[in-house]
Amino acid sequence: MSVAALETEVIAPARSRVLTKFLRNRSAVIGAVMVGIFVALAVLAPLISPYDPNQTNFAALRKPPSMAHWLGTDELGRDILSRVMHGGIASLYAGVLSVAIALLIGLPIGLAAGWYTGAVDAIISRATDALLAVPFLILAIAFAAALGPSLTNAMIAIGLSQVPIFVRITRGQVLAIRNEDFIEGARAVGVADFMILLRHVTPNIMPPLLVQATLTVAVAIIAEASLSFLGLGQQPPAPSWGSMLNTAKNFLEQAPWMSFSPGAAIFFVVLGFNLFGDGLRDALDPRET
Fold first, then answer.
1. pLDDT of residue 163
2. Where does the chain have alpha helices with state H?
3. 251 DSSP 8-state letter
4. What is the sign, positive or negative, of the torsion defined by CA atoms of 134, 150, 84, 74?
5. How far is CA 196 from the centre of its chain?
6. 149 in Cβ contact with 224 (< 8 Å)
7. Minimum mean pLDDT among 81-85, 89-93, 179-183: which range?
8. Ranges of each domain in the chain
């Protein structure tokens, strides 16, 4: 049987089962829809936002929600709806790219720790344990403060802070399959370690890593908002949900609507990614029927 035929008979039905299980999970579908809405709003923000997010209007300072400004205006008369939509670009961008950075760095390190036992595993594991002992947000703030305040540096800081998580998961998955028959068979015919890790180990450990990546995006979005709130992320006047909350805290009594919108945006996008990640985990779990 050819490789193409094997893929058709084995891999395609497996993908179909995963999709079917995912679609049967109502909360997972709701999460996927929520994430899709926020992604669409962020991508289309330059086209569909009613105002320029940085356009000031001193005749409309701190106006409550109205037909002209659906979510009201801020302390400089800027339209909050437009700023929330454009702020989603920074949050989603930071969330996805920081997780990509963590995965690209953590995956090869975890592969090395799980495959080459002994001193290599001991050194990597102890370094990972030491980093995991530090709270994630504290580590991200430390990296961001060292790199300097900007959205790019915030993404790098968040990504570096998440590396230990992916190292630990990758190492555990490699240890679980390194003695499987198909791995031993590849060793027996003389396949190099690099090719075994690339062609046989990595594809078989990707499902749990993808689930963790999806769930970690939600954590990264909260971290980006926290860094922006502290002035270490997206810099004014560019909109960011965290910096909008930082400004809104000074006007909670006079203009409470300034805090509602960015806070709700963070809540719902994080909820969406968590629901989506949980559904993806259940769909990829072969023990779930």
1. 95
2. 3-6, 12-24, 26-48, 80-115, 119-132, 136-147, 151-177, 181-188, 193-196, 202-229, 241-248, 257-284
3. G
4. positive
5. 29
6. no
7. 179-183
8. 3-284
Give the end-to-end CA distance of the chain in Å, rounded to a whole number. 29
Residues 178 and 180: their CA atoms lie apart, in Å, by: 6
- For residue 73, what are the β-bridge partners? 79
With CA atoms as reference, report the closest residue to 148 among 238, 234, 232: 232
Stretch 203-211: mean pLDDT: 91
Please give the structure tokens belonging to residue 204: 């078989």
Q: Which amino acid is at 173?
A: Q
4/75: higher pLDDT: 75
- Rounded CA-CA distance 143/227 in Å is 11
pLDDT category of residue 181 using cuts at 50, 70 and 90: confident
The predicted pLDDT at position 285 comes to 74
Length of the chain: 289
Half-sphere exposure of 161 (CA within 13 A, CB side): 28
Within 10 Å of residue 223's Cβ, how many Cβ atoms? 28
User: Quick one: how far is CA 241 from the chain centroid?
Assistant: 16
- Tell me the CATH number of domain 3-284, given options 3.40.30.10, 1.10.3720.10, 2.40.50.140, 3.40.50.2300: 1.10.3720.10
Residues 6 or more apart whose Cβ sits within 8 Å of residue 91: 221, 224, 225, 240, 241, 265, 266, 269
User: b/e per residue, 45-78, with b = 16+ CB within 10 A?
Assistant: beeebebebeeeeeebeebeeeeebebbbbeebb
Enter the pTM of the model: 0.89
Q: For tokens 């899709």, name the residue.
A: 36
Tokens representing residue 134 in the block = 């530090």
Tokens 């540096």 found at: 153
